[in-house]
């Protein structure tokens, strides 16, 4: 896989955790062939979430978003693979589940935008920023799964 490997940040939001969908979401990424390299179960502070969503701070929904995201535990994860940022966004589906195609995670499991169960990085650059915000270098594990040669040429 070499230089084409990249990482993305995926976070199961409080609604996904409360609905018991963490395993289902992990399974979708594993079945696709992506490699999980970091995972936590945390109750995030408003301060951390304000940093995470800083690009949305001028939007009218920002205070409600931060309050909602700090209302319960979340599961931040780092996934690695070929074109993982773009592919993960496609797997998640549109931000508004009503616009998500069947077969996407949001298309299959969500109804409203305010309960869309997941956050996913929108670029390699934002993935790096988000990973660095949520994980230390030691918490992201470099490893090679035995099946890697059966996923990549």
From TrEMBL:
Obligatory cofactor(s): Mg(2+)
Catalytic residues (positions): 119
Keywords: ATP-binding, Kinase, Nucleotide-binding, Transferase
Top EC category: transferase
Annotated residues for binding of ATP: 13, 61, 89, 95, 106, 116
Reactions catalysed, as given in the entry: a 2'-deoxyribonucleoside 5'-diphosphate + ATP = a 2'-deoxyribonucleoside 5'-triphosphate + ADP
Domain Nucleoside diphosphate kinase-like: 5-142
Keyword rRNA processing carried by entry: no
GO molecular function, one term: ATP binding
EC number of this enzyme: 2.7.4.6
GO terms of biological process kind: CTP biosynthetic process; GTP biosynthetic process; UTP biosynthetic process
Recorded family membership: Belongs to the NDK family.
Protein name: Nucleoside diphosphate kinase
Lineage: Eukaryota, Metazoa, Ecdysozoa, Arthropoda, Hexapoda
């Amino acid at each position: 896989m070499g230089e084409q490997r990249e990482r993305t940040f995926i976070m199961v939001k409080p609604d996904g955790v409360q609905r018991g969908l963490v395993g289902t979401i992990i399974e979708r990424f594993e079945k696709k062939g992506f490699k999980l390299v970091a995972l936590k179960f945390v109750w995030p502070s408003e301060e951390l979430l304000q940093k995470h969503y800083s690009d949305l701070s001028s939007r009218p929904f920002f205070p409600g978003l931060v309050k909602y995201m700090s209302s319960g535990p979340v599961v931040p994860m780092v996934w690695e693979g070929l074109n993982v940022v773009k592919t993960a966004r496609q797997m998640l589906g549109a931000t508004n589940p009503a616009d998500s195609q069947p077969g996407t995670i949001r298309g299959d499991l969500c109804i409203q935008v305010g309960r869309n169960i997941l956050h996913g990085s929108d670029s390699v650059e934002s993935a790096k920023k988000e990973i660095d915000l949520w994980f230390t270098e030691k918490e992201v594990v470099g490893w090679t799964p035995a099946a890697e040669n059966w996923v990549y040429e």
